[in-house]
Write a structure and sequence with these properties.
3% helix, mainly beta, 1 helix, 16 strands, globular
Length: 192
C-alpha cells in the first residue's frame, strides 16, 4: 500500500504455474496475468481476491500484457498472433492478425514473435514491436487494424560473415512523437 508503506503476502494466485507477465486493470481493480508454462491468462480480483482462468491464449511464454488506450489489454503469442483481453466481458479475443515472416529472419520466423513493448499514442492507437520483427506496428483499437509504421533498421544483417538477429525490447516516444529505441544484436547459429 503506497499510502501506508505496508506490504502483504496474498499467496500464490495460480498453483503449479509460473506467472510470466502481468498488468493492472484500473477499470475493474484487477490484475491480469499470463502463465509461462501453460500460456493461460488469469484474472485476479483485488476486491474479493478471487482468480479466474480465462483459458489458453498462447502456446507457452509471452510476457507483455499491454493496457491499451481503450482500457482493454493486448498481447501477442510467442508465434505472433495478436489477441485482446476484453476486461468488460473477461474473455479472450482473437484479433485475426499475425506478425509476418521475413526473408532470412530466422529468429522472428521460428522463435520470437511475441510483443516485446507497446506504447499508447492517443485515445485509440498504440504502437508495438515484436521482439525480432523487421517492423514497428500501429494498432487502432477502434477499427482493430494493424499497420506497419516502418522498418526498425536500414539493414538486414549487421555483419556479412555471421547471421545476426536484431531485437527491440524497449522503446520510448518523446513529446515530439519521435520513436527512440536500442537495437539489440544476438549472434545465432542458423541450421545448415
Amino acid at each position: 500500500d503506497p499510502l501506508t508503506g505496508k506490504t502483504e503476502n496474498w499467496g500464490v494466485p495460480v498453483p503449479r504455474e509460473t506467472i510470466y507477465g502481468a498488468t493492472y486493470d484500473a477499470k475493474h481493480n484487477a490484475i491480469y496475468m499470463i502463465g509461462f508454462m501453460r500460456g493461460h491468462v488469469y484474472r485476479f480480483s483485488i476486491d474479493d481476491r478471487t482468480v479466474k482462468d480465462l483459458g489458453k491464449a498462447a502456446e507457452v511464454f509471452c510476457y507483455r500484457l499491454h493496457p491499451g488506450p481503450d482500457r482493454h489489454i493486448y498481447a501477442c503469442t510467442k508465434s505472433g498472433f495478436l489477441f485482446r483481453i476484453n476486461v468488460d466481458t473477461e474473455k479472450l479475443e482473437d484479433l485475426n492478425w499475425r506478425v509476418p515472416e521475413y526473408p532470412n529472419n530466422y529468429c522472428n520466423n521460428t522463435w520470437y514473435r511475441y510483443m516485446s513493448q507497446a506504447r499508447n499514442v492517443d485515445d485509440h492507437t498504440f504502437i508495438f514491436v515484436p521482439l525480432c520483427a523487421d517492423e514497428f506496428f500501429k494498432f487502432d483499437t477502434t477499427t482493430l487494424k494493424v499497420t506497419s509504421i516502418g522498418r526498425r533498421a536500414p539493414f538486414d544483417e549487421l555483419v556479412d560473415y555471421m547471421p545476426t538477429s536484431m531485437g527491440v525490447n524497449e522503446f520510448a516516444i518523446d513529446r515530439f512523437g519521435v520513436l527512440w529505441y536500442v537495437l539489440g544484436m544476438f549472434p545465432l547459429q542458423r541450421p545448415a
